[in-house]
Design a protein that fits this description.
Layout: E1 4-8, H1 12-24, E2 29-34, E3 37-41, E4 48-52, E5 68-71, H2 75-87, E6 91-99, E7 104-110, E8 116-121
Parallel strand pairs: 1-4, 5-8
Antiparallel strand pairs: 2-3, 3-4, 6-7, 7-8
Length: about 120
């Protein structure tokens, strides 16, 4: 159902550099960059994560309660992505660990524009 999710950025080049490095950690590369927007994903046929400067020319802002969750192939991938985010200057919103009673494993961070992301491995 979801084709892509877009996060706002105040500095497209900085955001592109951040996501190129961050998502490269999990084998995801940039699909395209055009004008004020860029996208990453496994292929153009699968959901993508995009960043863009706002179309209306106003300042980008972070949505309160908005979070994009990135599904990982393993708990180790969650750990690796969270560590990479911290190394790139992200804000820590929750270290990797189990959440709840059913084996959900997740970590939370904010990108350089303050957008909240989660890396998670679902319960087995």
């Amino acid at each position: 159902m979801i084709g892509y999710v877009t996060l706002g950025t105040a500095d497209l080049e900085r955001a592109v550099s951040f996501y190129d490095e961050l998502l490269g950690t999990i084998g995801i590369s940039r699909l395209w960059k055009h004008g004020s927007m860029a996208a990453w994903g496994p292929s153009r046929a699968e959901p993508a994560l995009c960043v863009a400067t706002p179309f209306d020319g106003e300042a980008s802002s972070v949505g309160n309660g908005v979070m994009v969750a990135l599904k990982m192939v393993s708990r180790e991938a969650v750990d690796e992505l969270h560590a990479k985010a911290m190394n790139l200057g992200s804000g820590d919103e929750g270290a990797p660990g189990e959440r709840g009673e059913h084996g959900f494993y997740g970590a939370y961070f904010r990108d350089l524009d303050g957008n909240k992301l989660a890396a998670y491995h679902p319960a087995q």
